[in-house]
């Protein structure tokens, strides 16, 4: 049997598969579809350190080959998160990478410290890329200086692996990736969904409650693969690749571009069996191609 284990900055994953934050259940509901231990790691929905209502509905709309969303990171209070979610997350038998966000550096520092002190998580993903917020997220991930300053501050709060989740910002994603690496990030997750919108031709008004949203799903895959390819050339830290992955072929494409692990996102809304099927198919592909170790594929398109 080929080796499927990958190591993301000390997070030992028994296979390269995780889920895109916000696209998979948080409270055990995923067990209805397949055993959670099939995944290499779980990445739950981004949380804030305070209660937040999120964006007005409608929050989702279909697009050709994709999904438009504008959820806005609704969040429970920290107290409710600890009481309701942490007991469920504690029982998960695979590494859990908690995604967090803040409006300011201070809020990121606060939530990272709180999460780290719980002693439950294998790593922390810093959402520097939510496209649907007025404050925080994207304002850090689209600016090399702001992301560097932020990572330096949160780095002091935790010994856990820090993963910076970046936006698909063509003009400077490579500079941001270099900045977060030099500031102490241990890995990069990419990409978050690019900003997008739809207008109802009947009403001639925006479809989403927030007017502007973000596009995810197969429509963005070639963009994501290209950006992983560029960032892989620029940094040495591992990359968790995502954006439109639906099957094992996409997994191989992302890994060949330079991703060491991959996340399944929007496909989870369409096909709850996509992950178990892709895992089996990946294993068969490795066997058929005489590849002993899935790590051999990482970056091989660059050779
Ligand atoms: C409904 C929805 C909610 C999302 N929520 C989050 C979130 O809370 N935090 C985050 O970092 N990314 C969030 N994302 C982005 C995904 O994690 C992923 O980066 C993006 O959708 C690209 O992957 P995909 O095309 O496979 O979905 C969300 C995406 C969708 C569709």
In words, what does this structure look like?
The protein has 303 residues and is an alpha/beta fold. The protein has one domain: Aldolase class I (TIM Barrel), CATH 3.20.20.70. 32% of the residues lie in helices and 17% in strands. It has helices at residues 78-90, 105-118, 138-141, 144-155, 173-183, 221-234, 248-257, 267-270, 274-288, and strands spanning 6-8, 11-13, 17-19, 60-63, 66-69, 97-100, 123-127, 162-166, 187-190, 195-196, 199-200, 205-206, 213-216, 239-242, 261-264. The strands form 4 sheets. Strands 3-15-14-9-8-7-6 form a 7-stranded parallel sheet, with helices on one face. Strands 4-5-13-10 form a 4-stranded antiparallel sheet, with no helix packed on it. Strands 1-2 form a two-stranded antiparallel sheet. Helix 2 runs parallel beside helix 4 (144-155), helix 4 packs parallel to helix 5 and helix 5 (173-183) crosses helix 6 (221-234). The chain is globular. The protein starts with 5 loop residues before the first strand and ends in a 15-residue tail after the last helix.
């Amino acid at each position: 049997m080929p080796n499927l284990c990958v190591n993301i900055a000390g997070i030992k994953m028994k296979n390269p598969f995780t889920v895109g934050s916000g696209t998979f259940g948080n409270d055990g509901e995923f067990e209805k579809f397949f055993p959670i231990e099939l995944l290499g790691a779980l990445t739950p929905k981004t949380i804030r350190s305070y209660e937040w209502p999120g964006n007005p509905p409608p929050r989702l709309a279909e697009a050709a080959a994709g999904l438009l969303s504008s959820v806005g990171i609704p969040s429970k209070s920290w107290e409710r998160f600890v009481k309701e979610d942490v007991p469920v997350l504690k029982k998960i038998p695979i590494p859990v990478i908690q995604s967090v966000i803040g409006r300011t550096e201070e809020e990121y520092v606060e939530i990272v410290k709180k999460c780290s002190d719980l002693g439950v998580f294998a790593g922390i993903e810093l959402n520097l890329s939510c496209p649907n917020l007025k404050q925080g997220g994207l304002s850090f991930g689209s600016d090399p200086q702001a992301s560097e300053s932020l990572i330096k501050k949160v780095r002091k709060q935790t010994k856990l692996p820090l993963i910076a989740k970046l936006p698909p910002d063509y003009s400077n994603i490579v500079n941001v990736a270099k900045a977060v690496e030099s500031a102490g990030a241990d890995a990069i997750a990419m990409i978050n969904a690019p900003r997008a919108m739809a207008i109802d031709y009947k009403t001639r008004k925006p479809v989403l409650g927030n007017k502007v949203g973000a596009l995810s799903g197969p429509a963005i895959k070639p963009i994501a693969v290209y950006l992983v390819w560029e960032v892989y050339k620029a940094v040495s830290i591992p990359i968790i690749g995502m954006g439109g992955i639906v099957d094992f072929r996409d997994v191989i494409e992302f890994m060949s571009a330079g991703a060491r692990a991959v996340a399944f996102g929007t496909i989870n809304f369409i096909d709850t069996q996509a992950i178990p099927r892709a895992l089996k198919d990946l294993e068969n592909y490795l066997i058929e191609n005489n590849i002993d170790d899935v790590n051999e594929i990482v970056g091989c398109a660059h050779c």
